[in-house]
């Protein structure tokens, strides 16, 4: 299975931007659906965005739609999350995830081996 490592988190002001990256190793990146999840302290992990690496079909959580853009570079086996117009409620640890089948499968795989994530903090 894909091995993923997140990077690019940091501190931003409300209204600012960050770009997160997720580097994949292992099997062919283009064979997978990949996406981003986030978790604030004391809350459940929630879906943020996903993309099919093979055809570019994308899906976003309503809370980030219009502000975040997910993209992938299959040649570099890298997933990106461009975050614009950041809000304090975007604060949390961001994790990337892969699934061999579909975006639905990505959301419903409850036994995924999560990595360390990358921390995003948005101040007022």
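-> sequence recovered:
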């Amino acid at each position: 299975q894909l091995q993923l490592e997140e990077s690019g988190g940091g501190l931003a002001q409300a209204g600012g931007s960050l770009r997160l990256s997720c580097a994949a190793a292992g099997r062919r990146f283009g064979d997978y659906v990949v996406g981003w999840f986030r978790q604030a302290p004391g809350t459940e992990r929630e879906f943020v965005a996903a993309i099919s690496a093979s055809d570019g079909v994308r899906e976003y959580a309503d809370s980030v739609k219009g502000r975040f853009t997910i993209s992938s570079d299959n040649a570099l086996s890298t997933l990106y999350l461009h975050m614009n117009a950041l809000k304090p409620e975007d604060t949390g640890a961001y994790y990337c995830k892969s699934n061999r089948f579909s975006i639905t499968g990505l959301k419903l795989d409850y036994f995924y081996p999560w990595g360390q994530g990358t921390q995003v903090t948005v101040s007022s």
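The chain is about 5% helix and 50% strand.
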